[in-house]
Write a structure and sequence with these properties.
Layout lengths: L1 E14 L2 E12 L2 H21 L3 E13 L2 E2 L5 E4 L4
Antiparallel strand pairs: 1-2, 1-3, 3-4, 3-5
């Protein structure tokens, strides 16, 4: 039984020809669909944020990590890849 999902996103952006990268962690998501929804929302927010700063998002990815009573559950965890356009 899956107790929760943890969302880990990573992103890189280019502002003034300088690449910077970061990560964002969201804990205690109720299910896989909420994790996927949050991953998409965070990616879109990061892209909007970079456009306002006259930069661009060059890389974005997310991992939805399933946690059960024994810890990490590899069978229900998944990676989401995005094409940045």
């Amino acid at each position: 039984m899956i107790i929760k999902f943890i969302l880990l996103t990573s992103f890189c952006f280019n502002i003034d020809n300088e690449i910077k990268c970061g990560q964002y962690l969201r804990d205690n998501l109720s299910d896989a669909s909420e994790c996927k929804f949050m991953a998409d929302a965070i990616g879109k927010a990061q892209k909007r944020k970079m456009l306002k700063k006259e930069g661009n998002l060059v890389e974005y990815g997310a991992h939805c990590i399933a946690i059960d009573l024994e810890g990490y559950n590899v069978d229900h965890s998944f990676k989401i890849s995005y094409n940045i356009s």
